């Protein structure tokens, strides 16, 4: 389930944010949840095979900002963003609390809910072009020159799509396990998912994002996404790749194969 949320400044002034504001939006999400749900999500998440998944994702702010003289981002008096999760209780609690709480804090600035919209999930039966609403990142730990280092893959590397698929499979299993549903792990392990750059360049689409003390390399752009409907769905609601709960991996439909009017390959 996905929500489109618009907040407005209580004072009517422009909303100011640091350049790297992912943590600010994460705090907004957690602080808008009921206390018990927020605590459980933050400390436990949804456990599967020794990994904890948060199973939520959010976008970048949709409005464009100007850089002010202090190096901050100056938005207008409203900001719009998307929050999404396959866990209905989680996203419904978030939406309900936004309605009932008169105000919220965004980087020490008081804001109030201006509008909230439930976004209909797209029906995808084959390949689709997607645009990233927040940059996608996928990584692994490698031993380089005798030291363990985090390696962030670029979209044109073969491992990028391979790891995105493996990550989606784990998230889908975590969701089914959370729901207490039986599933055939071999069947899910054989599900397909492919993420291929369509309108993309490293120079234009690579984003270096600071989250707390971590430097994260991630990518925006347009990608061709194809695979089993279950994996497409879980990545739509929970995000593509890693670090979704830190504001990475939200996508939206850019163009479906049907919209091209032909059965061939998609083009951006």
Quick synopsis:
This protein has 268 residues and is of the alpha+beta class. The chain is 27% helix and 34% strand.
Principal-axis shape: globular
Under the CATH scheme, which architecture of the largest domain would be assigned? 2-Layer Sandwich
Distance between the termini: 27 Å
The helix-strand sequence is EEHHEEEEEEHEEEEEHHEHEEEHE
Strand content: 25-35%
What class do helices, strands and sheet pairing give? alpha+beta
- Looking at the chains present, what oligomeric state does this protein adopt? single chain
Instruction: Write down how many β-strands occur, each being a DSSP E stretch of 2 or more residues.
Output: 18
Low-confidence stretches: none
Q: Specify the CATH class of the largest domain.
A: Alpha Beta
- Mean pLDDT, all residues: 93
- The main sheet orders its strands as 5-8-1-10-9
CATH topology of the largest domain: Alpha-Beta Plaits
Major beta-sheet overview: 5 strands, antiparallel
- Count of distinct structural domains: 2
What does this molecule look like?
- With 268 residues, the protein is α+β, with helices and mostly antiparallel strands.
- The chain has two domains: 2-119, Alpha-Beta Plaits; 128-260, 2-Layer Sandwich (Alpha-Beta Plaits), CATH 3.30.70.1900.
- It contains seven helices and 18 strands.
- The chain starts with a strand and ends in a 12-residue tail after the last strand.
């Amino acid at each position: 389930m996905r929500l489109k949320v618009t907040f407005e400044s209580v004072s009517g002034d422009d909303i100011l944010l640091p350049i790297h504001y992912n943590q600010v939006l994460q705090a907004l999400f957690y602080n808008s949840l009921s206390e018990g749900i927020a605590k459980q999500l933050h400390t436990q998440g949804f456990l599967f095979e020794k990994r904890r998944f948060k199973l939520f994702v959010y976008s970048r702010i949709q409005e464009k900002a100007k850089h002010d003289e202090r190096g901050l981002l100056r938005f207008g008096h409203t900001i719009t963003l998307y929050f999404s999760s396959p866990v209905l209780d989680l996203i419904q609690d978030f939406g309900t609390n936004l309605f009932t709480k008169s105000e919220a804090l965004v980087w020490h600035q008081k804001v109030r809910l201006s509008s909230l919209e439930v976004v209909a999930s797209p029906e995808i039966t084959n390949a689709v072009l997607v645009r990233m609403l927040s940059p996608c990142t996928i990584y692994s730990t490698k031993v380089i020159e005798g030291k363990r280092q985090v390696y962030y893959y670029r979209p044109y590397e073969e491992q990028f799509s391979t790891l995105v698929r493996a990550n989606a499979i784990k998230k889908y299993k975590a969701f089914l396990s959370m729901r207490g549903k039986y599933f055939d792990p071999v069947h899910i392990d054989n599900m397909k998912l492919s993420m291929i750059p369509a309108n993309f360049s490293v120079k234009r689409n690579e984003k270096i994002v600071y989250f707390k003390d971590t430097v994260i390399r991630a990518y925006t752009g347009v990608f061709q996404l194809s695979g089993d409907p279950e994996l497409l769905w879980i990545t739509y609601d929970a995000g593509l790749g890693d670090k979704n709960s830190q504001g990475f991996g939200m996508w939206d439909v850019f163009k479906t194969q049907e919209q091209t009017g032909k059965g061939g390959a998609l083009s951006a």
